[in-house]
Amino acid sequence: MSAITSRRTWPILALGVLALASAGASRSSLAAGQPAVGSPAPALSGRDFKGGAFDLRAWRGQVVVVNFWASWCQPCRAEMPLLDALQRDYRDRGVLVLGLSADDRHDRKDALQVAQGVGYVTGMLADAMDNGFGAPQVLPLTYIIDGTGRISAVLRADRGALSGAQLRTAVQQALDAVPPGATRTGD
User: Fold this and answer.
1) Which of 19, 96, 136, 168 lies 20 to 30 angstroms, CA to CA, from 62?
2) Is 31 a domain residue?
3) How far is CA 113 from CA 19, 89, 136, 155, in A?
């Protein structure tokens, strides 16, 4: 069982992150192995809770917001209405939101219940067929991927609670960064 998804070890993980931060650990060491701003978005594909397929490669030319969350994570659940509103408000501008639960497979029912309250694509990270992002080291964790397929922002819980304004600013920057008709990385 992964420490990030265990309900009993979440407080221990949170304390560990705080201890590393207070000990002067750099942001890059906290995010070691995780995709960084400016890098091409890794592969990510699988099935959503409704049985549909998702694949970042299929969403070429669009801004994609990938959010990793868990049913037991209160900050994650607090962000979900922000992500839902973003999906509604920006859908016509080519923005897609994908929320993947980092819950263990045996907690699928809890994750599905939480996900029923949002209108964006949701699924289980454990069910991903191709996951180049790896396991999130902190939750919630959100990547903004611009229309060229590059990561334009990483929004992490250990850097403060996400506001609707921060999320919309990051998405707008991703929209503005790519001229219409530009080709995604790897095409």
Assistant:
1) 136
2) yes
3) 33, 24, 21, 24
pLDDT, averaged per 10 consecutive residues of the chain (187 residues), comes to 46 35 33 83 96 93 97 96 97 97 96 96 96 95 96 90 93 85 50
- Indicate the residue type of 105: R
Q: Does residue 77 belong to any structural domain of this protein?
A: yes
- Residue 140's domain spans which residues? 10-177
First to last CA, the chain: 37
Type of residue found at 85: A
**Residue 1: inside a domain:** no
Among 161, 157, 48, smallest CA distance to 99 is for 48
CA distance 13 to 17: 6
Give kind and range of the element (H or E) at residue 152: strand 151-156
Residue 185 lies in a domain: no
